[in-house]
Amino acid sequence: MSDSAATEIVPKVVIVGAGFGGVAAARALKGAPVAVTLIDRRNHHLFQPLLYQVATAALSPNDIATPIRGIFRRQTNVSVVLGEVNGIDTARREVRVGNGAVAYDYLVIATGARHAYFGHDEWERFAPGLKCLEDAFEIRRRVLEAFERAEAEDDPVERCALLKFVVIGGGPAGVEMAGAIVELARRALVKDFRKFDAQDPRITLVEAGPRILRGFDERLSRAAIRALARLGVEVRVGNAVTHCDASGVVVAGERLCARTIIWAAGVSASPAAEWLHAEADRAGRVMAGAQLALHEHPEVFVIGDVAHVLGCDGTPLPGTAAVAKQQGRYVGRLIDARARGRPTPEPFRYRHYGSLATIGRKAAVADLGRVRMSGSPAWVLWSLAHIFFLVGFGNRFAVLSNWAWAYLRYDPRAKLIIGTRPYSPPLALPAPAKMLPEPSSVGS
User: Fold this and answer.
1) Looking at residue 79, what is its pLDDT?
2) What is the rounded CA–CA span in Å between residue 189 and residue 101?
3) Among 64, 258, 353, 354, which is least packed, fewest CB within 10 Å?
4) Are residues 395 and 380 in the same domain?
């Protein structure tokens, strides 16, 4: 049989999304008798856990982003397609990309999540979230320009508002963002300005639930609050944001004046459920079976943030990198087994190895099950874990050197305002006469 004929009969695997889950699935198919097509609308894989450090000028984008083609340069059964998926035809087994279509025998959906404003999409223009490099550039622009405007502002009231920052959401992303902003503001940027001192920037973290870091042990949540307080972050729990505009936010009927607001409160899945006409949960995640496949289409798999999968305790698995990577490896092994005519693996089971969150550059919390720690030891563990899981030696070296420089001198090298637009915040919207009802999930 000729090589071309052999290629034609090889099962076609299409993976949509080159995040943690998609990359893990493609890597797990190395050496498998399949032809893999990896589709993503961007040409790079992003290490999202460190994206907030790009937003706060601690790292450059190339430190945490790797070209997808470079990752799979030596994996000859993978082809990379740059394009945006706009639909899936499960009857014809085709993925629509732009004006074309890509046929599949097996399909893996790993398209991740997007920001969710809980019915208040109009807040997005005032409070950007953080999911991609473009988001990081926008947040960094707003933060750095707030200081530039404060330096040029003669009105002390307006200068005070410019130096106030509100982070909405007390999960790991919100806690890490708040800690990074306060350190950037009070230990680095104030050295470059003349009209305000280190105590003038004020950062408030708002969480609707009873405590921050709800996925961690309660003692670690209290330790995180103490660490944030030492940095100078005000933490507000138990009340949701009910209004948001260019002048600030309303929490429990009180207006917090702030010109820079950052959203870290919630996400919703990509439109994969709509593409597949599949059952989904309230967050838009596709209901997956025990082998992460659709019940009606066993050749279609959903993983990562787009999948609703129950853990051993009966609750949905969280949208973390660890979950996505384990699911990606599992699906890759399963497809490999099917392609070889071998028995498929047992149903997917997530193995939780721990949760980490950092608070500034010297403190963190680590929940490893039986072992829990906070402070500097947890920070060292957090640093080592993130460096280990970065893709590529060059990225690891770059991040390590930048962190070493920041630890010794705390003078971030990426204090550049990226973007062509001059600072022009949208007009403030008048606060409603009657406060909106407080959805329990806002600010969580």
Assistant:
1) 98
2) 49
3) 353
4) yes
Domain of residue 95: give its range: 3-41+83-115+267-340
Count of domains in the chain?
Answer: 2
Tens digits of residue pLDDT in 42-93: 999 999 999 999 999 888 898 899 999 999 999 999 999 999 999 999 999 9
Please give the C-alpha separations between residue 181 and each of 79, 203, 251, 295, in angstroms, as whole numbers: 40, 8, 21, 45
- pTM for the model stands at 0.88
Active-site residue flag, 145: no
Q: How many CB atoms lie within 10 A of CB 157?
A: 9
Q: What is the pLDDT of residues 222-261, one digit of tens each?
A: 999 999 999 999 999 999 999 999 999 999 999 999 999 9
Does residue 244 lie within any of the structural domains? yes
Per-residue b or e along 365-398, where b marks 16 or more CB atoms closer than 10 Å to that residue's CB: bbbeeeebbbbeebbebbbeebeeebbeeebbeb
Q: Is the domain of 249 the same as that of 130?
A: yes
Q: What is the pLDDT of residue 2?
A: 46
Of the residues 138, 176, 183, 207, which is catalytic?
A: 176
Domain membership of residue 28 (yes or no) is yes
